[in-house]
């Protein structure tokens, strides 16, 4: 019995929908007054830029900036909606949001996004051990192949962020 999976490495569609629904259920349904829909796209994008800098130690996000060059609409939509509307919502602190993002991206096999958000999680005070626990948890809903791939990606991130043998930083 396959339980709706199309491959061994891809969780069933129903499971992916349940994970997404669980993540959405954690976010309050009513927007806060500060996040009212009366804001312009420019204001929302500005707020999104502030969110990214708060997550990324005051820096812009290189992937977003590269996307802005060739796909300006997609970059603006990401900055205004994903960052300015969703990530700026009240109700969850930065640690919790990043742990949820790491788990979700690991579970769906999006390790590039998982790596970015794991870096933000470390910036927000999440420990390497806590991130490892998230990957262990991924084995239950998404399976060992996804968790193993996520573990390799997380190991790369840890190695990149550790000081080099010469005493400097990477």
TrEMBL record:
<dbReference type="InterPro" id="IPR052512">
    <property type="entry name" value="4CMD/NDH-1_regulator"/>
</dbReference>
<feature type="domain" description="Carboxymuconolactone decarboxylase-like">
    <location>
        <begin position="74"/>
        <end position="153"/>
    </location>
</feature>
<keyword id="KW-0732">Signal</keyword>
<protein>
    <submittedName>
        <fullName>4-carboxymuconolactone decarboxylase</fullName>
    </submittedName>
</protein>
<dbReference type="InterPro" id="IPR029032">
    <property type="entry name" value="AhpD-like"/>
</dbReference>
<dbReference type="Pfam" id="PF02627">
    <property type="entry name" value="CMD"/>
</dbReference>
<dbReference type="InterPro" id="IPR003779">
    <property type="entry name" value="CMD-like"/>
</dbReference>
<feature type="signal peptide">
    <location>
        <begin position="1"/>
        <end position="36"/>
    </location>
</feature>
<dbReference type="GO" id="GO:0051920">
    <property type="term" value="F:peroxiredoxin activity"/>
</dbReference>
